[in-house]
Design brief:
The protein has 12 helices and no strands. The chain is mostly helical. Helix 8 packs antiparallel against helix 9.
């Protein structure tokens, strides 16, 4: 009988990956929040000008506040795309330079505010706008402009890798959405482990793109099957009759198979053991078909 400690260590890599992913999401969600708070004195000034009957000042201050808030929203979109770009080893550069657009918006707004709101001269206002753009660029950086090709070799292209990774990420996010809707804490934790393990496989593909051909079918069966059973189970909770004992048993059995197959074959995938991997995939696929997933 295996020692309890070995069982506890079984999911250590997945747990670490989950914690890292959570930390990454927290950092991304917090970045740039200050940009929303800095313009609030302008809103107060606009309200005061409105009370005083100064229409021109109200429009300048209120318009500047709105422009700064829009720039902050654009910047946050850029931060999110950049974080995803940095997280991946192979990625396309963002098509739209949101951070650069936000920097320009902020700079122009500052220049106009200095000119119309604080009565600075045109040259001084332009210098303030330029200083604002430079300050934004130094604080937050500008958008990445080059694709990350990683260790691409002959026989596989950047587009193939990115297409496979993007498709896998869509399925993972769908599984995570279903996981949040599932009220059973044990099932929720197991699905969290599964998505974490899936991201580990994606990382190994990015580290060595030649693994894509071996991992493609594995990811398809693994993620498609998990997505369908997770979404189906989550929807069954909203039915009037709810889940049944048979449904819980079937769902539990499918999760067992998915976890076990993935854990056993992850090492074989890295070791180029194609035969054992294909056998295990075929076994899992047959079970998913019996459960009505495919």
């Amino acid at each position: 009988m295996p020692h309890p400690v070995s069982k506890a260590q079984r999911y250590a890599p997945a747990a670490a990956a989950t914690a890292s992913e959570a930390a990454h999401q927290v950092r991304t969600s917090l970045r740039g929040l200050l940009l929303y708070f800095l313009p609030f004195p302008l809103l107060i000034g606009a309200i005061a000008a409105l009370v005083a009957g100064n229409v021109a000042s109200t429009l300048v201050l209120g318009g500047s506040f709105a422009a700064y808030m829009l720039a902050a929203t654009i910047a946050r979109r850029g931060f999110k795309l950049e974080a995803e770009y940095q997280r991946r080893k192979i990625a396309r550069a963002p098509k739209t330079p949101f951070k650069t657009v936000a920097a320009l918006f902020t700079a122009v707004t500052t220049g106009v505010l200095a000119w119309l709101g604080a009565d600075y001269g045109v040259l001084a206002s332009i210098m303030m706008a330029a200083a604002t753009f430079l300050g934004f660029a130094l604080s937050y950086g500008l958008d990445p402009r080059r694709d990350k090709a990683g260790g691409i070799s002959l026989g596989v292209t950047v587009d193939e890798i990115i297409e496979a990774v993007d498709a896998a990420e869509i399925r993972i996010k769908s599984i995570e959405q279903a996981r949040r809707a599932i009220r059973n804490p044990d099932y929720s934790q197991r699905l969290e482990r599964i998505t974490s393990q899936a991201r580990q496989i994606i990382t190994t593909i990015e580290e060595d793109p030649t693994r894509l051909s071996r991992a493609r079918k594995f990811l398809k069966v693994y993620l498609d099957g998990t997505e369908k059973v997770a979404q189906g189970y989550a929807k069954s909770q909203n039915n009037q009759q709810g889940t049944t004992t048979n449904l819980d048993t079937d769902f539990n059995r499918v999760l067992d198979s998915i976890e076990q197959t993935f854990q056993e074959q992850q090492t074989k995938l890295l070791e180029n053991n194609n035969f054992d991997l294909d056998v295990q995939i075929a076994v899992l696929e047959q079970q998913l078909k019996r459960e009505g997933v495919f």
